[in-house]
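Reviewers of the previous submission asked for a worked example of the structure-prediction workflow described in the proposal, so we include one complete record here. The input consisted solely of the amino acid sequence. No template or homolog information was supplied to the procedure at any stage.
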Amino acid sequence: MLLYHTQANGAGFKPIADQIHALGLKFGIHIMRGVPRLAVHRALPVKGTNVTCRDIAHANSICAWNTDMYGVDADCDGAQAYYDAIFELYASWGVDYVKVDDICNVKITPLEPYSARREIEMIRRAIDRCGRDMVLSLSPGPAVLEEAWHLAKNANMWRITDDFWDNWDSLKEMFWRCERWQAHVKPGQFPDCDMLPLGHITIAADGIGHNTNLTHAEQITMMTLWGIFRSPLIMGGEMRDNDAFTLSLLTNDELLNLNQNGTTPLQLFRNETKAAWLNFVGSTPYIALFNLTENRAVVSAELSEFTDKTHAEEIWSGEKTAFTKTLSAKIEPHGAKLYKLI
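From that input alone, the workflow returned the following structure tokens.
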């Protein structure tokens, strides 16, 4: 659960976190990288030091789309102490999950695509010192593939895309992104395809928003790809307005089991018209078939290595089919089928 407001009387988020934990849920917050510009302009002190926020701020490190913060200059005395102090505060609230935004290229110029490296390291150290386990999610826009080792060392999940929205072109592009990142899906480290734009999407200037522009087939494709790739599943719509179809996507036990308990995914093939992916839960294989065209089409995957499997159960429809060596399905335009081999 992500919340974007605070609590009066100096209690911070703790009363809210306590209520969330009492429901058996985890509590997460979204923050911007760096130090608030107002704290810098007022030269507020950094806890436990003799320096101020003005002393640790990197004046040329400002987010291009939200100018509330300055970056923290890791070379300055007190820089680490600043991050230690804010994560000590988050720990006192009972925070379980922190999403840090604007944390890839932290300079105005794009000359160094991963210039947030040292701020990421300071955040990692601050979490390790705060006395509370927290999931660290980074939102760098398209993460830098060559820095996958550094992301995996310091974070639990990281965005591999710009903001993902409800249109087919963005969804089709995600197949390419998942192909590039598939080998880096490991326990505790998850490349993130971004939030699921399902149901009633309410972030809009009119305050009303709209229902997702993805067709039912495209929504199944999105859930299938996110599920088998093991991307974090974060709902991006107004959950109180979910219809039965949207709710069915979010509560499919087989899909959730695959996403939570799968292994490192493997793309079997992809071209402009079709794709197929493989993953396992224990010794049970799951096969996803995707039709990337505008027309109904047959998609097939050669599965001769699974000699002990004779049937496949499609997890969205419950339909069972027999197969020998090759699994084939006729699939709707932009659609998918996800099979459990039995």
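The CA atoms of residues 7 and 15 lie 8 Å apart. We consider this example representative of the routine output the project will generate in years two and three.
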